[in-house]
Specification:
138 residues; 4-stranded mixed beta sheet; 6 helices
Length: 138
């Protein structure tokens, strides 16, 4: 099986219904203490924001979303990275694309889209690996 080139979005939150319910309540009751900046920017109270979903679909790489508790099983070598974070997987090698500090400093969805797009284009430029030529920022 050929190695895939993709972008990995890793939330600083656990998966599963109970964890999601807890996160939902925490985001409403005490949003300033919610630990996942990626979740805060890309999700509203009723799920993933439409603009983010459209943007991710338009990226030139396959997008994979993982929760913190899923990361170690899938990518044990990434367990030491602070989360939330975004990684690039190219030909089986995984590297940091956007750090937790950068995500924490990102003020809103348009800024996140611009940052992701810039970093992805840095990685894919001239490699012919894209499934689409450009992504759209909405």
């Amino acid at each position: 099986m050929a190695a895939q080139n993709r972008i990995l979005f890793v939330y600083n939150a656990d998966g599963g219904l109970l964890a999601q319910f807890k996160d939902y309540v925490l985001k409403i009751v005490s949003p300033e203490t919610y630990p996942c900046s990626l979740c805060q920017i890309t999700y509203g109270n009723l799920g993933m924001k439409r603009a983010w979903r459209r943007f991710v679909r338009s990226l030139p790489l396959e997008a994979v979303f993982l929760h913190r508790d899923e990361l170690v099983g899938a990518y044990a070598s990434l367990r030491h990275f602070p989360l939330a974070a975004v990684f690039s997987e190219e030909e089986g090698a995984v590297s940091l694309l956007i750090s937790a500090d950068e995500l924490d400093a990102t003020p809103d969805l348009p800024a996140l889209q611009a940052l992701v797009l810039a970093r992805v284009h840095e990685r894919t430029r001239g490699r012919g690996q894209s499934r689409k030529e450009t992504a759209t920022v909405a």
